[in-house]
Inverse folding.
């Protein structure tokens, strides 16, 4: 079968057609991937921002069909349609029992190499590796979806949509009538803008370096849009200079993380969704936390309990309240994945989706 492999940091992925899988073990599930989104986190693994050492089959935003289940698996069966969850949700560990499956502690079964290339075992990114025609994951990494949800739509829910909408609805808990600013209008940012719209925000400002993204953001619910240099002026215009009730960073850049904190009003909330490099630092004065009384929060997987939140996103899509078709800018074959990375880095697309069907 085909899979796209990162052999070395900062190098193109190699598309191989002779990749196989390990034998199915207890608790594991063999899935045929039908669709996979290309997310900025894939690029971040390629360039070393997110630590996931090569060799590695990239891809973590996918959906497919269960082929076979290993001994002991009872929550999914052959023929089921599933979304891959890039963190497991085991239902048994302390964070899962506490209702925080996005912090699931049962990572061990994810970090088993399941791909075989030239006789050697290879890991999939985050334990998934959706840039492959087939994969094996523990059943804890699968969320079953109804057959009437198209699998290209479902694939986007695997990462960007859950992360962005979840950051707005779960992490920030945006209240109706609020003012919101979202830095970065890529796949995650556009999802956050839609989350803010669904939550009933009165004003939503989208901030992006790329002009074409600003128009796009308005199609998904942004009421205002600007480049980073105009944020102060928009803050004055929209909030009379006070700052936004909620500010969300969907880029992963220390400068925009700092700008996101600054854009929130005193007593407001800043949520950091983007993933920067481990060694990058952000400075705050020791006085300002006290004085500003802001909430500064990280957001892992949109603080989502995937087993309840992903079905909720499917229902929002069915109800016409969440535009996911519009987020698919390009449909590609796996052979075009390196070009899709370039398009993403150039800000040309919201999402490219690999079609394996
Ligand atoms: N200021 C404003 N906008 C910027 C800046 C900047 N300094 N740098 C990049 N952008 C914009 C890009 O033009 C693009 O539209 O941010 C957007 C990022 O979108 P994508 O590349 O589509 O990335 P996405 O998949 O949305 O991921 C965003 O979330 O999950 C994390 O690892 C992921 O850190 C990444 C972030
Ligand atoms: Zn992702």
């Amino acid at each position: 079968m085909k899979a796209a492999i990162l052999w070395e940091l900062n190098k193109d992925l190699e598309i191989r057609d002779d990749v196989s899988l390990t034998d199915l073990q207890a608790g594991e599930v063999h899935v045929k991937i039908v669709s996979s989104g290309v997310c900025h986190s894939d690029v971040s693994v390629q360039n070393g921002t997110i630590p996931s050492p090569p060799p590695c089959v990239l891809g973590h935003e996918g959906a497919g069909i269960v082929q076979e289940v290993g001994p002991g698996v009872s929550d999914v069966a052959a023929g089921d349609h599933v979304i891959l969850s890039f963190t497991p949700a085991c239902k048994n560990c302390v964070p899962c029992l506490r209702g925080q499956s996005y912090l699931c502690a049962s990572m061990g079964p994810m970090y088993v190499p399941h791909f075989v290339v030239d006789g050697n075992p290879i890991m999939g990114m985050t334990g998934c590796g959706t840039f492959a025609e087939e994969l094996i994951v523990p059943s804890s990494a699968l969320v079953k979806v109804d057959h009437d949800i198209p699998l290209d739509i479902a694939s986007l829910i695997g990462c960007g949509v859950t992360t962005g909408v979840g950051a707005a609805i779960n992490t920030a808990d945006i209240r109706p009538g609020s003012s919101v600013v979202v830095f970065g209008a890529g796949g995650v940012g556009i999802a956050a803008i839609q989350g803010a719209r669904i939550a009933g925000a009165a004003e939503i400002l989208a901030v992006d370096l790329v002009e074409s993204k600003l128009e796009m953001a308005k199609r998904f619910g942004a009421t205002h849009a600007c480049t980073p240099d105009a944020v102060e002026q928009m803050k004055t215009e929209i909030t009379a200079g006070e700052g936004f009730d909620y500010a969300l960073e969907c880029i992963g850049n220390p400068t925009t993380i700092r700008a996101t904190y600054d854009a929130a009003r005193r007593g407001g909330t800043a949520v950091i969704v983007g993933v920067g490099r481990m060694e990058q630092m952000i400075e705050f004065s020791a006085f300002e936390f006290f004085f500003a009384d802001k909430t500064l929060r990280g957001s892992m997987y949109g603080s989502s309990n995937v087993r309840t939140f992903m079905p909720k996103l499917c229902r929002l899509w069915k109800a016409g309240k969440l535009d996911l078709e519009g987020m698919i800018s390009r449909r590609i074959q796996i052979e075009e994945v390196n070009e899709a990375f370039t398009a993403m880095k150039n800000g040309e697309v919201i999402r490219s989706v690999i079609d394996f069907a």
The chain has a mean pLDDT of 97. Residues 249 and 259 are 9 Å apart (CA to CA). The chain is about 25% helix and 25% strand. Residues 164-300 form a domain with the Rossmann fold fold (CATH 3.40.50.720).
